[in-house]
Amino acid sequence: MKTIRTKSALKAYLQPLRDKNKTIGLVPTMGALHPGHLSLLRNAKSRCDIVVCSIFVNPTQFNDASDLEKYPRPIEQDTALLESISCDVLFLPDVEEMYGENEHWHIDLGSLETMWEGAFRPGHFQGVTQVVYKLFQIVQPHYAFFGQKDFQQCMVVRRLVDIMQVPVRLVICPIERSREGLALSSRNVRLSDHGLRDALDLSKALRLVRHGAKEQGLSKSKLAANALLDENPNIQVEYFAICKPDTLLEVKECEGEQLVALIAAYIEGVRLIDNMLIDCQ
Ligand code: PAF
After folding, report:
1. What span, in angstroms and rounded, lies between the C-alpha atoms of 140 and 142?
2. Which residue, judged by its Cα, is nearest atom 8 of ligand 1?
3. 49-60 pLDDT, tens digit each
4. Is the CB of residue 61 below 6 angstroms from any atom belonging to ligand 1?
5. pTM for this structure?
6. Could you tell me which CATH number the domain at 186-274 has?
7. Fewer CB in 10 Å around end: N or C, the chain?
8. How do the domains of the chain map onto residue ranges?
9. Domain 2-173 class in CATH
């Protein structure tokens, strides 16, 4: 695997490959790789000739300085993992390489900007689209791979691609979970064993809604899921909502075929998110 730290070196490396009609796949990450990322990378390997994984903890998407500071950066472990699955290129720029001084970025994300994640993390999606657009321009991938775990992020990136007319195919990969059901996340390493057990209640609540939706109806199963979360004093829920997957507007009862339940909560000061698709028919 080649580790490349500058935009110019990466462009120079990829251009001859592109000229030879090689298919290029991009897996953008902030590092602290776990099996969720590895499944994105495997998916990328299966579709593309050349897989570029970027690791960049992007400061513009953090609205909380201590979250940015505490974000795990186990680069040696990440490099070894990428080598082990035969990733072709690790793009590892530093902040100065990615950002000039006083850069301005704003894109119209409509209501995606202010709902759910957007409401609790103001400016977050502007930061995400800013860096993802930069990565798209540098790598010019044929395919880019994102995890469904960041459901709203996937929709935001789709919108970025539409607005900026980026010629890339987005591939959204399913959430990877631990055996007990916890959605894998780089932030999980900050939880104690106790916190990890508490965190299981998030996916339990989502499953209650998913299983109950057809039999008891959505509002009853949501009440049961809320009760489960309320019973655990170690969980501070920011939002827990059942929404239309295309608009993220909240619904009270099943309408249409598929909905998505979204949750964000703090456990031991760590912010976790998860979601599950719900079939109503
Ligand atoms: O999902 C992430 O890890 C980040 O938001 C991304 C897409 C790599 C942009 O920094």
Report:
1. 7
2. 29
3. 999 999 999 999
4. yes
5. 0.96
6. 3.30.1300.10
7. C
8. 2-173, 186-274
9. alpha beta
